[in-house]
Amino acid sequence: MNTTLVSFKQITRDMSASLDRLGERADIQREVDYYRETIGTIKTPEQFVADTRVFNFAMKAHGLEDMAYAKAFMLKVLKEGRDEPDAFANTLTDPRYRDFAETFDFARHGETATIFTKAQDGVIDRYMVQSLENEAGRNDPGVRLALYFQRKAPEITSYFDILADKALSQVVRTALGMPTATATLDIDKQAAMIADRLPLSDLKDPAKLDKFVERFANLWQLQNGGAQGGAIPPGSPARLLMPVSSMGISGDLLLQIAQLRR
Fold first, then answer.
1. What is the rounded CA–CA span in Å between residue 136 and residue 260?
2. Burial 210-240 (b: 16+ CB within 10 A, else e)
3. Contact call for residues 252 and 238 (beta carbons, < 8 A)
4. Cα atoms in the Cβ-side hemisphere of radius 13 Å centred on 53
């Protein structure tokens, strides 16, 4: 049984090869071909959300797959764009909606919004990466989190970027050994706690970023009882065999235990 870290390393050792293998799947090829052939024919936000395959493809590419049901909500995002300070996407704390509005900027470009590279090949590339992360997450959610964090970390410019993204904040809290309860604290206090232990410059340094992600992967493995199958459900007898991190064992100690086991 592979550990979280080993599974992560297997994928990232040659990311291009990992993406190529995924792209050979017939179901992936069908969706990519349909999107490529169709997206340029879409001229309005209404047409965009009406084509379920195109819409779902784009939503998945932006990490918004779980919100694909909210077409009226996303239509408002598309119609208002990003240019105005009070545009709907700009009022939302989740940066993924702003990203979506920028990719498909009907408000600024009108009928030509879907002809740009970012709306065509750019979205296909993102879809492939997102699909790879989703596939990894089926066996171990920790691998998906590690891949996502590694991809997004260079874009982080403030501690509030981390706190605004549930996946990023989960990785950081795990790697720093911060109790889950810290998520209920005032956001400024949370930012200060992270700042004390994680310089943002570390996320721009590939070597330091690799070490941070490895630390997360090791601690995730210990806290969730094994890579295959993801987290162990509450109440499972296997929980009795897991480190009781929520009862005060620090992240540093858990990491030492992982190193000793290896």
1. 26
2. eebbbbbbbbbbbbbbbbeebebeeeeeeee
3. no
4. 12
Question: Which element (helix H / strand E) includes 22?
Answer: helix 15-23
CA angle 26, 31, 36 (to 5 degrees): 125
DSSP-based three-state secondary structure for 54:
helix
Our measurement of the distance from residue 115's CA atom to the centroid of its chain's CA atoms, rounded to an integer in Å, reads: 26
pTM more than 0.85: no
CA distance 52 to 239: 41
- Whats the size of the chain, residue-wise? 262
Please indicate whether residue 247 or residue 206 has the higher confidence score (pLDDT). Answer: 206
Give the integer Cα–Cα distance in Å for 150 and 144: 10
Is residue 246 scored above 50 in pLDDT? no
